[in-house]
From TrEMBL:
Domain of life of the native organism: Eukaryota
Composition skew (Polar residues), residue ranges: 73-91
Residues covered by the DUF4371 domain: 221-449
MF GO annotations: protein dimerization activity
SUPFAM superfamilies to which the protein is assigned, alphabetical: Ribonuclease H-like
Lineage: Eukaryota, Metazoa, Ecdysozoa, Arthropoda, Hexapoda
Segments of this protein annotated with the region Disordered: 71-91
Residue ranges annotated for the HAT C-terminal dimerisation domain, each copy included: 757-812
InterPro entries: DUF4371, HATC_C_dom, RNaseH-like_sf
Protein name from the UniProt record: Zinc finger MYM-type protein 5-like
Length: 839
């Protein structure tokens, strides 16, 4: 059934009744009084009446508006009938005031609460109803700016569509003038006038709603736009909007008060955020025994509140906050602090993930450990290459994502956790080109390990066993290869335990040396099987202080009154006071020193697989040279023996022969320790990229290049095109006179010389190679921060707070350029706040 339309007589009758009601209303000047400067609701009596004739604003109206100094009144229920003698308003002025919309500070309606502030275009017209919006929602819409998407606009049935060219007006002289009022709604597929939508007078007889509701007829759209922007309705709405923007609206004092209050609380929050960053980047605990500000003695407060009090002595903003006892809202509670910590860490992770998404590929680095409360913490690092084509450089980065507690430890659980984290970070797992784990079977298993499960999803995600872990395993296995070597390291550890367990003995060793002032810092070290450099530090310290150790042991034997201490000293002295121990000491020190030289570079973030392979090969060659130079080692051992008067000959012992079976051959047997024990899977991965090394590429002929490139394209078919071989052949002529030797240098050569578009596949191959991790040292370093953050005094720290604090500390370089204003806006928009932070 169609809607009933009133007849002309009914319309005229209704209009006459409304005019009679208007005539019965009192004049506006009856509401003014000399005793009261202004009462809320003075102008609303005329504005709220329907069918009032609006007129254009003139100078008289503006002067009257500016003369009003509005102040919010809390007792405005009564209207004062007195009239101020010096102020007279005629009917014309009263009618003109009707054209200005008064914006009363009302609480936000449900529409403003339902605003989706996280979307890309939050001010889209399609998200709101056709009714006039309240002041708070208008303020939010204007703060986000006009909705002007630059997308592939859809076509209508007539094959016409909207274009971004309509956002501008082209003058005859060729200038482009923007149209800030013109907006496009993606939801409605319509263009509309934001100015008329927000500020047009809907009571005006000449009001038209087509540019408020939206226009989607693209035929002759330019003429329609030109006609609307020159219309009276649009110009009047623009005047009201201009008054709004210039704070010349009737309630400007209230608006200014709201703005000043928001500015004050933003300044408070800015200082709180900077204090949090100052404390968290230095691994300093924030809380003490306090609950809320002022709940306990200020001397029992934590570092955060103490820092706030300290700065308040010199900062007027914090001083005003603390000294105001009437306002119980101070935003200094631990709940607010934890919320800000989470927002800050989320912003840093989001920024890093944005860089990861813009880069071509990334790799996963993971390792786990137990914290102080026996919870298994998984550290996740993402390695990627950040290329800056404007500055012609790139950077290999390893970004910390966070700690995640492990409740189950199967490969399937690890895989599900990885999937969940990748989805949460909005990353594409198909872009993963490398995996770096330790040697645990659950991680590196060939059949059902984590690396195999990830390869099932992404076949090109190459797994690399951590080179530093591998090197440490080689050293550990070598240290257990013979009983004499096992006894040697046990003796080194026993000497450390003997001196470190007693303060007087430790002090006696520290100062019982003729050159103690020079070597006092070189103290005995502990032999730790899991620390990569602990064995070298322990052996080197004992070799340096060998004579001092024997002196102190002798002194303890002669002067100590404790039988147990004497016996321990005699036993240790007997074990080290022979040439065999000294020879092993002089043999292991240069071996461990050579491996120590590559342990540090392997932990560098910028190291690549080819560099790691070369270092490991050099380590193998160094050990082979030491094996062939046994005479030099023996000479050094004899010199050390003579310093204490130890015999330089071995003690004669009875030979022990093992029973020989009938099928065994005569001859000596040695341990099956070969060169392969020093090799790691890094070799195999590096060899697959070996043809990309400039020195190798120049030696290959075209047929070999085609063969290597064919195998490479098969492995990385989603990344490298069939044009790869041609690019390699062409690259040979470009780098023939260059001095680059490594793949990393080749990538820099291509970028700095402007060749990325000429050799895109080669650059992609170089980036993939640099993405593949060499070690998990970054994950190991994160465990050091874990122990500092979650120590025995802070062991109740929950998982989210632990991870957020670790992100702020490990990625502290990112906190320097963090956008404080964005953090404050995110904090304000997260949920309803008792104070206003939006200006």
């Amino acid at each position: 059934m169609s809607k009933r339309v009133p007849s002309g007589y009914e319309k005229r009758k209704k209009k006459k009744e409304e005019q009679e009601k208007i005539l019965k209303l009192p004049k506006i000047n009856s509401f003014f009084s000399s005793a009261v400067p202004y009462e809320e609701g003075i102008i609303n009596s005329n504005i709220t009446q329907p069918n009032t004739k609006p007129t254009a604003l003139n100078d008289t109206t503006l002067n009257i508006i500016e003369s009003f100094k509005t102040e919010p009144q809390h007792s405005s229920s009564k209207v004062v009938p007195n009239v101020e003698p010096s102020l007279t308003l005629n009917d014309t002025t009263s009618d003109k005031l009707d054209t200005i919309e008064t914006f009363t500070p009302e609480p936000a309606p449900s529409s403003s609460k339902d605003l989706d502030l996280t979307c890309r275009y939050p001010s889209d017209r399609g998200k709101f109803s056709d009714e006039v919006l309240d002041a708070q929602t208008k303020r939010l819409i204007m703060s986000f700016g006009p909705c002007k998407p630059d997308i592939n606009f859809p076509r209508n049935d007539s094959n016409r569509k909207f274009s971004i060219e309509y956002y501008f007006m082209n003058t005859k002289s060729g200038f482009k003038i923007p149209r800030p009022w013109l907006c496009y709604s993606i939801i409605l597929d319509m263009v509309y006038c934001e100015t008329c939508w927000l500020f047009a007078d809907r009571l005006n007889k000449s009001y038209h709603s087509n540019w408020v509701d939206g226009v989607n007829d693209w035929q002759h759209l330019a003429q329609k736009i030109s006609k609307h922007e020159s219309s009276t309705q649009h110009i009047e709405a623009g005047q009201v909007r201009s008054l709004w923007n210039k704070n010349k609206i009737i309630d400007e004092q209230l608006e200014r008060q709201i703005s000043e209050e928001a500015d004050f609380w933003r300044n408070v929050l800015e200082r709180i955020i900077k204090i949090i960053l100052f404390l968290t980047t230095g691994n300093t605990a924030l809380r003490g025994k306090e609950g809320k500000f002022g709940d306990c003695n200020k001397f029992a407060e934590g570092n955060f509140l103490r820092t706030v009090r300290l700065i308040s002595d010199y900062d007027p903003v914090l001083n005003k906050l603390i000294s105001n006892d009437k306002d119980c809202v101070k935003y200094l509670s631990h709940t607010i602090v934890n919320e800000l910590i989470e927002i800050l860490s989320s912003e840093i992770v989001k920024k890093n993930c944005d860089e990861i998404r813009t880069s071509q590929y990334f790799s996963l680095i993971m390792d786990s450990t137990q914290d102080l409360t026996k919870v298994d913490q998984l550290s996740i690092i993402i390695r990627y290459v950040k290329v800056n084509y404007e500055e012609n450089k790139f950077e290999i980065k390893e970004s910390f994502i966070g700690f995640y507690d492990l409740k189950h430890h199967t490969a399937k659980d690890y895989e599900q956790l990885i999937r969940k984290i990748i989805i949460k970070l909005n990353l594409d797992i198909t872009k993963c080109r490398g995996q770096g784990y330790d040697g645990a079977s659950v991680m590196s298993g060939k059949h059902n390990g984590v690396q195999t499960r990830v390869k099932y999803i992404v076949p090109s995600a190459t797994f690399v066993h951590c080179s530093s872990h591998n090197l440490n395993l080689v050293i550990s296995d070598a240290a257990k290869s013979h009983q004499k070597i096992i006894n040697f390291f046990d003796t080194v550890q026993a000497i450390f335990n003997f001196f470190s367990s007693s303060g007087p003995r430790w002090a006696l060793l520290a100062f019982n040396s003729d050159i103690s002032n020079k070597i006092r810092a070189k103290v005995l070290k502990k032999v730790c099987p899991t620390r990569w450099e602990a064995r070298h530090d322990a052996v080197f310290a004992l070799k340096t202080r060998f004579v001092d150790v024997l002196k102190v042991l002798t002194q303890i034997i002669l002067t100590s009154s404790k039988t147990n201490e004497k016996n321990l000293a005699m036993g240790l002295k007997k074990q080290i006071e022979n040439r065999e121990f000294v020879l092993i000491l002089c043999l292991w020190e240069p071996i461990l020193r050579a491996l120590q030289g590559i342990s540090k570079p392997l932990q560098n973030v910028n190291i690549t697989l080819d560099q790691a392979s070369n270092m490991l090969r050099n380590a193998v060659q160094t050990t082979q040279k030491l094996r062939n130079s046994f005479e030099d080692v023996s000479k050094n051992a004899n010199e050390l023996c003579l310093k204490w008067g130890i015999s330089t000959s071995f003690l004669n012992k009875r030979n022990i022969f093992a029973k020989k079976h009938y099928d065994e051959l005569d001859g000596d047997y040695r341990l099956n320790v070969t060169e392969e024990n020093f090799k790691v899977p890094t070799y195999n991965v590096a060899d697959s990229f070996g043809f990309l090394t400039p020195t190798t590429l120049l030696k290959l002929n075209d047929s070999d290049i085609i063969k290597y490139s064919y195998d490479f394209v098969l492995k990385y078919e989603n990344d490298i095109t069939s044009d790869f071989a041609r690019q390699l052949i062409a690259l040979k002529t470009v780098i023939i006179n260059s001095e680059i030797k490594a793949i990393k240098d080749l990538a820099q050569f291509i970028i700095s010389n402007g060749f990325p578009s000429s050799f895109p596949d080669i650059l992609s191959a170089c980036i993939i190679f640099m993405c593949i991790p060499v070690t998990v040292a970054s994950a190991e370093r994160s465990f050091s921060k874990l122990k500092l953050i979650k120590n025995y005094l802070r062991n109740t720290c929950n998982q989210d707070r632990l991870s957020s604090l670790a992100v702020l500390n490990i990625e502290r370089e990112q906190t320097i350029n963090i956008a404080i204003d964005k953090i404050i806006n995110d904090f304000a928009n997260a949920k309803s706040r008792r104070k206003n932070f939006l200006i």
